[in-house]
């Protein structure tokens, strides 16, 4: 998608600190980290958010879940634990409308919403 920040990052038009890449997804460090490890995992296909997923995307979603585990291992937070968040829409304060999963770890997270 032409005017999408994360599509531009995936294409390399905007620089990013790459952590992981496969056929389905691209992962890079958040520009404003909220934890010692804060990685954004995005599908290469432009999808607005979880609410826009269709049956067609089953493979992408599955592969991303597996990629998140690999990234956690690579970042050294698989054993200590980590949190995965995907903000979806206005009330969740989603700011970039290309599906992404925040992977947060490297510290004990006291604030627990659920
Ligand atoms: P959201 O608020 O939509 O769930 O998450 C968007 C995330 O993208 C935020 O955590 C923000 O810090 C991050 N972000 C916004 N612009 C950039 C950028 O240009 N590069 C990187 N690496 N992260 C960005
Ligand atoms: Zn996009």
Q: How would you sum up this structure, described in words?
A:
With 114 residues, the protein is of the alpha+beta class. It has a single domain (5-82, 94-105), classed as HIT family, subunit A. It contains two helices and five strands. A hairpin with a 7-residue loop joins strand 2 and strand 3 (37-43). It is globular, with a radius of gyration of 14 Å. The site of guanosine-5'-monophosphate has 14 residues, from strand 2.
Task: Itemize the secondary structure elements and their pairings.
Elements: H1 5-11, E1 18-21, E2 25-29, E3 37-43, H2 58-74, E4 82-85, E5 101-105
Antiparallel strand pairs: 1-2, 2-3, 3-5, 4-5
This protein binds guanosine-5'-monophosphate and zinc ion.
Structure characteristics:
binds zinc ion, HIT family, subunit A, binds guanosine-5'-monophosphate, five-stranded antiparallel β-sheet, 114 residues, alpha+beta, 22% strand
């Amino acid at each position: 998608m032409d005017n999408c920040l994360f599509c531009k990052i995936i294409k390399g038009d905007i620089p990013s600190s790459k952590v992981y890449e496969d056929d389905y997804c691209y992962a890079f460090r958040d520009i404003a980290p909220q934890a010692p490890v804060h990685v954004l995992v995005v599908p290469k296909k432009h999808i607005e958010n979880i609410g826009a997923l269709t049956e067609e995307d089953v493979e992408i979603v599955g592969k991303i879940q597996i990629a998140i585990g690999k990234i956690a291992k690579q970042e050294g937070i698989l054993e200590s634990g980590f949190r995965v968040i995907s903000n979806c829409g206005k009330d969740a304060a989603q700011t970039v409308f290309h599906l992404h999963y925040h992977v947060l770890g490297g510290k004990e997270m006291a604030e627990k919403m659920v």
